[in-house]
Amino acid sequence: MEEKEISQAVIGRLPRYFRYLGELKDQGIERISSQDLSGLMKVTASQIRQDFNNFGGFGQQGYGYNVEYLYHEIGKILGLNRKHNFIIVGAGNLGQALGNYLNFERRGFIFKGVFDIDPQLAGREIRGVKVMPMEQLEQFVRDNDIDIAVLTIPKTGAVEVAEKLVKNGIRAIWNFAHVDLNVPEGIQVENVHLSDSLMKLSYNISRYMKENGEA
Fold it and tell me: Which helix (H) or strand (E) holds 149?
C-alpha cells in the first residue's frame, strides 16, 4: 500500500504538537479536546483534526484525545522512538551552544562527536566530548553509526564537507552554513538561516507598529 503524501506544512506543525502534548502530560492531564488544544496552540480545532486525520485521527468523538497516547504516537511519526547519533562540524560559538543543549538527549538525539579545522580547538571538550581534527571525520562517521551531521561552519567549506559526509554514510544534515547543498536523493537536509528568522521578526515588529500608529 502506497504511503500517503503528507504536506510539509503538516510536518512542520508536528514538533509543536509534540512539545505541547509533552507539557500537558507532565502536568498530569490525561485527555484534551481539539477545541482546548486549539486554545493553547492558537491553531484552529478544524486544522488540528485535519492534521491528525492524515495519520489515522487518534481521537474519539465525545472523549477527545488521550494525551499520553497521542504524545507517543506523534513521537513515533517523528521518528523519536529510536536513537539518532549526531556529530557537529564546527566547534565555534554556535557549535558549542548546540553541543551543550541537553534537550537533544531527551528527544533521542545522542551527541557523539565534534570536529573543527582549527588545531587550537583540538582536545577541548564540549559536554565531555573532545573536539577532533577534521582528518578524523570520515573514519569516525563510518565507525560510529552517525545518522545526522550538524554543519556550523562557514559556507566556503560546507559543500566539500557535505560531500565527504554523504560518501561515508550520513543520512541527514542540519545545515547552518549559508549555502545550498547539492546532495543525492534520499539524503535529508534541513537548512537553518538564523538571519532569516530575525528578519521575519523585524517585519512583524514593523507591521505591528504601522497598524498601531507607532511608525
Answer: strand 148-151
Helices (H) and strands (E) in the chain, counts: 9, 9
- Which of helix, strand or coil describes residue 171? coil
**pLDDT score for 96:** 95
Phi and psi torsions of 204, nearest 5°:
-65, -35
Give tens-digit pLDDT for 191-206.
998 888 899 999 999 9
Closest CA to 78 of 164, 34, 31, 15: 15
With H, G, I as helix, E, B as strand and everything else as coil, classify residue 15.
Answer: helix
For the chain, first and last CA: distance in Å? 56
125-169, pLDDT tens digit by residue?
A: 999 999 999 999 999 999 999 999 999 999 999 999 999 999 999
Decide if 8-77 and 84-195 have a common fold.
no
- Yes or no: domain 84-195 corresponds to CATH 3.40.50.720: yes
Q: Cα-flanking dihedrals φ and ψ of residue 125, to 5°? A: -110, 140
Q: How confident is the model at residue 57 (pLDDT cuts 50, 70, 90)?
A: confident
CATH number of 8-77: 1.10.10.10
Q: Which residues pair with 85 in a beta bridge?
A: 110
Tell me the domain boundaries of the chain: 8-77, 84-195
Quote the pTM value.
0.85
CA dist., res. 77 & res. 155, Å (int)? 32
